[in-house]
Write a structure and sequence with these properties.
The structure is a single chain. The chain is of the alpha+beta class and 467 residues long. The chain has 14 helices and 22 strands. The longest helix has 26 residues, at 266-291. The protein is elongated, with a radius of gyration of 37 Å.
């Protein structure tokens, strides 16, 4: 664990780490503070009370731990993480920086929401014997358990990272080795082949017409492989273009008749010529469409998938049933089982006296289970109350990444998180831009405070009362 502190000025949030005495004049420190290395946190060196500190700018960035604290990571998300970390490693190597100084702790791997990229923390005084252990423990805990291939790949990476020479490039190879290769994709394309000749050696001849497909894609009982891999196309005649051409010819003939047998004014002649030109364009379109055939190919299997619903066989033979009264049901039950009771026994409610005057035992309810934590909005324009239905509970404006989305520009994408430690409710600022306030006091980035009923909580410009 790194001894970190946090500081916030007017516009920026900073994470502070102590700088060693010999590090200030080193090549790594000078290149780190120059800001020329892409993919790592921008850093500045400051002198405070005779001590030297690194100030890392973490504004508008969320940590990997905070981003997936109560969510699972898919195979694509884990692969993107390793790809971007490997890119950061390559950038450090190009600048002749020691890659082992890159901190791979989940709480110090940051994610830039606006650029959708991971940003690494490079600390020149960082030393560890197992740089990947904490990261792999976090991934094993938060990976998607339903994906067996992903679980096998991550466990394999975890086992091999203990050996010497393991790198992020090896991890990328293990994550990508199960993907379908381009040759496999080309082999499984649906194409049409000519029918094989019908003779005694049909099976032998069929192999010359049908290419070999991966056996893992064919299940038993699916029928002929030739029929499964050949798309069945049917043709349907489109009558729109012939009908359009016929009506256009009739319209032009009608215009010619009117022009030849009636005396028309100049304005009427212009209107008639305009209609004739429009009909001529329609005639041309109809003729071209008819020449091309007006045939469209359809795939019955594909078209059937577009049908929203198809009545089942059971719906055609559904018999209308007449309603049955409760007395008929009970009488029928007595005929089948005379020992059965005539009516169901009424459930006995706890903490209530029966009509006979006897008292049942009082049922104990745990009051802790009935506690409901809620944030009541105090602003006139904001009428949305927040109910803390679970813990941890995250608030922000980035829907899909938080438990409660607040549509306000002053709220950060992932603004704050509520956690419960025993009977205490804790509030954590998630490196928000406009800050999180408790009773008017602004919290430091990543600061954790205990809140009690009656406390006023503010996220940016939104005020709430905790009850």
């Amino acid at each position: 664990m790194l001894e970190t502190r946090y500081f916030k000025d007017y516009k920026h949030n900073y994470m502070i780490l102590r700088c060693g005495k010999q590090t200030e004049t080193s090549y790594q420190c000078r290149l780190l503070t120059s800001g020329r290395i892409e993919g790592i946190l921008r850093c500045s060196l400051r002198h405070v009370n005779g001590e030297r500190y690194f100030y890392y700018d973490i504004s508008s960035r969320a940590t990997l731990e905070g981003l997936y604290r109560d969510r699972k990571m898919t195979a694509q998300q884990i692969k993107e993480l390793f790809e971007q970390l490997y890119g950061i490693y390559c950038g450090l190597g190009d600048c002749f920086m020691e890659e082992s100084r890159l901190v791979l702790l989940p709480e110090h791997i940051y994610y830039d929401m606006s650029r959708k990229k991971y940003v690494g923390l490079y600390y020149p005084d960082y030393e560890t014997e197992k740089p990947y252990e904490a990261l792999m423990d976090f991934l094993l805990e938060h990976l998607d358990g339903g994906d067996e291939k992903l679980a096998d790949a991550v466990y394999t990476i975890y086992e091999r990272m203990e050996g010497s020479g393991f790198s992020l490039q090896d991890a990328l190879f293990l994550l990508g080795e199960d993907e379908e290769t381009p040759t496999d994709k080309e082999a499984t394309k649906v194409v049409a082949f000519p029918s094989p000749p019908a003779d005694s050696d049909a099976k032998a001849v069929t192999s010359a017409f049908v290419p070999s497909f991966p056996s893992e894609n064919v299940e038993e009982g699916e029928g002929n492989l030739f029929e499964e891999k050949t798309s069945v196309l049917t043709k349907k005649r489109n009558l729109f273009y012939p009908v359009l051409a016929v009506f256009s010819i009739l319209g032009i003939a009608g215009i010619a008749y009117i022009y030849g047998f009636y005396e028309l004014a100049e304005q009427e002649i212009m209107m008639l010529l305009g209609c004739g030109g429009l009909l001529a364009v329609c005639l041309l379109a109809g003729v071209i469409g008819t020449i091309k055939g007006g045939v469209r190919e359809i795939n019955p299997k594909r078209d059937m998938e577009n049908v929203e619903s198809f009545p089942s066989e059971e719906s055609f033979y559904r018999v209308e049933q007449t309603p049955i009264s409760l007395e008929q049901v009970l009488s029928r039950q007595m005929e089948i089982n005379p020992a059965a009771p005539m009516k169901p026994a009424a459930p006995q409610m706890p903490m209530r006296e029966q009509e006979t005057g006897d008292c049942t035992d009082t049922v104990f309810f745990d009051s802790a289970q009935l506690v409901e934590y809620k944030l009541y909005a105090l602003d006139k324009k904001n009428k949305k109350h927040i109910t803390l239905t679970k813990f941890p509970y995250t608030v922000g404006k980035m829907a899909g990444c938080v438990d409660c989305a607040l549509a306000d520009d002053s709220v950060s994408r992932i603004h704050a998180r509520f956690e419960k430690v025993g009977d205490r409710v804790m509030l954590i600022d998630m490196n928000s831009t406009n800050g999180t306030y408790r009773n008017g006091l602004r919290m430091q980035p990543q600061e954790t405070v205990e809140i009690e009923p009656g406390d006023e909580i503010r996220f940016g410009n939104l005020n709430y009362c905790f009850r």
